[in-house]
Amino acid sequence: MDTVILQHISKSYVKEGPPALQDISFSVKKGELFGLIGPDGAGKSTIFRILTTLLLSDKGTATVAGYDVVQHYHEIRSCVGYMPGKFSLYQDLTIEENLHFFATLFGTTVEANYALIKDIYEQIAPFKNRRAGKLSGGMKQKLALCCALIHRPEVLFLDEPTTGVDAVSRKEFWEMLQRLKTEGITIVVSTPYMDEASLCERIALIQTGQILSIDTPANIIKDYPGKLYALRAPKVHQLLKDTRQYAGIRLCYAAGDKLHLSFKDEGKDHPAELLSWLESKGHQGVHIEEITPDIEDCFIAKTSTHE
Amino acid sequence: MKQFMVFVRKEFYHVFRDRRTLLILFGLPVMQILLFGYALTTEIKNAEIIIVDHAGDMASQQLTTMIAASKYFDINARVVSDEDIYKAFKKGKVKCAVVFPSGFGNDLQHGQTAQIQIIADAADPNTAKTLTNYLTAIIGDYQQQISPTANVPMRIEPVTRMLYNPEMNGSMNFIPGVMALVLMIICTTLTSVSIVREKEMGTMEILLVSPFKPTYVVLAKAVPYLALSLIDLIIILLLSVFLLDMPIRGNIILLFLESTLFIICCLSLGLLISSVTRTQQIAMMVSMMGMMLPTILFTGFIFPLENMPVPLQVVSNAVPSRWFYVIIKAVMLKGLGIGVIWKETLVLAGMTTALLIISIKSFKTRLS
């Protein structure tokens, strides 16, 4: 049986207007590293709060580690680790005091499960007498992860653990998650960063409370509809404006210093036509090539067809 | 139990690492006791007075000395002309003038009625009234001193005795009232803010997603503040006894037990406020403003409850400090035992139980 199961979960915060979650169903296998990928406001935190028994859904059922989130919320609270999106440890307590507090609260000791957090804790141990409020973003997240792990949870819920963290710490953080996976802990993690999606085993793309697709990152990329091209020219801004005027364009958007685009009708030889069309518009040095889409491209493609 | 203890310890860390909380906890009671005890009494001290002595004999000088020796008056000037009196009044500093007519001592010694003029600045009628009362009292004293057995008319004396020394009366009633007020505000404010802070900082989310029962969160919050409030109580009592000359005539253990009951009652109220408010600011507003006014109005130490319209008297029954005020006055000032105050104690205990149950029941086990 899967560790986390959601069936037709819906939730609205207000009576009028669009719901926060609309008929969400997915399941996470035991020991899996599952990613919820979506922009701010997509409903990721709401899913976490329903799974951690903090919120009640309007419709649908969900189980975590075999327990129902409504009836057996107390059992769930003992066996999951939760790291909210906002830093939620005691700012006026030191690293050591925070860790000790949460260990005791869960009825265990720091020593008992030290092996599990050793790799992470050693990085922040030199500052163990510093108050949590005075730590850098990356160190705060490492401490929060330690506190969420200290009771060796069956399932770990991490709500945007890498938001507001520098690139190096983000990379380290994901390496830690890979290591935790080998300990058999099921991990559900959310992130607004599309580049982190490929580090998960399976991902769910979420937009405005609905799931766009659930699959492994590789399959999602493989399922990209049609071909994707990258367009390069000196005047990117003007190029974007003009390219969007071209009749055969399905999607065109800026990605870094390039434009990514795809065509409506795959049959024709669009790239060459587009190039000559752009040259007639006065663009010079335009270069086009076919590229492999990444998760972000897939996300944009899904969102546009969804709308 | 170990979880409970570690939670309580965490609360103490919060208190001792936050200067603002410490200030409210220990600064506020000291400040309020001193403020109410010294500054805000109805008594007038060191009022500036001028003496116009047309007599210049022994009797007038003796009386002048008595007035000067009193702590209520400071002699600002001794002038001779009536014009100078009005000049002094117009400057606004002088509140009162005493005029001895010529032949004052002579009149007195020959058994006739001696007259003395008291002029007060009635722009502030209350002060003027109080000061003239003080002065007639001093004059009455003097009359009795010089002729304890003589049949000099002393008709004014019995009247002024009644009004004399309003200070003792005021302060004695004030301090128990202030004690009730201070404990009420500190206990409700600090507990309500401390729970709401967990909500605001997001730590409540983690606390809820733990095996620690929500009921224990509420109780573990109350325990440290109970201990700290008891320290406050000791500080207040020490200040009252040694600085404001308040007696503790009753049983001190009874006093502490009753105070503990009242503190628990206020803590429960604070817990209740915290479970219905979302931000620290609102919690602070509700417990400071919402509690301060009813406490001041309906406790009876500033506005006597007997003089209120009946509907307001009924409302006052819902204010815990009203009952505590009766209890503490009985124990501290009158030295009475539990036999007299058991009714009030029972009311307070009932309120406490009800509040505690409601606040534990209304504590949310989920976020909304």
UniProtKB/TrEMBL annotation, chain A:
Source taxon at top rank: Bacteria
All copies of domain ABC transporter, residue ranges: 4-233
Keyword Cytoplasm: no
Keywords from the named record: ATP-binding, Nodulation, Nucleotide-binding, Transport
UniProt xrefs under PANTHER family: ABC TRANSPORTER ATP-BINDING PROTEIN, ABC TRANSPORTER ATP-BINDING PROTEIN NATA
Family designation: Belongs to the ABC transporter superfamily.
Protein name: ABC-type multidrug transport system, ATPase component
Protein source organism: Chitinophaga filiformis
UniProtKB/TrEMBL annotation, chain B:
Transmembrane segments: 21-40, 174-196, 216-244, 250-273, 282-303, 346-363
Annotated ranges, domain ABC transmembrane type-2: 139-366
Any one annotated GO CC term: plasma membrane
Chief subcellular location: membrane
Protein's UniProt keywords contain Transport: yes
Transmembrane helix recorded as keyword: yes
Keywords, sorted A to Z: Cell membrane, Membrane, Transmembrane, Transmembrane helix, Transport
Highest rank taxon of the organism: Bacteria
GO molecular function, one term: ABC-type transporter activity
Entry-linked Gene3D superfamilies: abc type-2 transporter like domain (3.40.1710.10)
Compartmental location: Cell membrane
InterPro entries per the UniProt record, alphabetical: ABC-2_transporter_component, ABC2_TM, ABC2_TM_bact-type
Membrane topology (UniProt): Multi-pass membrane protein
PANTHER family (UniProt xref): MEMBRANE COMPONENT OF ABC TRANSPORTER YHHJ-RELATED, MULTIDRUG ABC TRANSPORTER PERMEASE YBHS-RELATED
Record family assignment: Belongs to the ABC-2 integral membrane protein family.
Protein name: ABC-2 type transport system permease protein
Species, as recorded: Chitinophaga filiformis (Myxococcus filiformis)
Source species taxonomy: Bacteria, Pseudomonadati, Bacteroidota, Chitinophagia, Chitinophagales
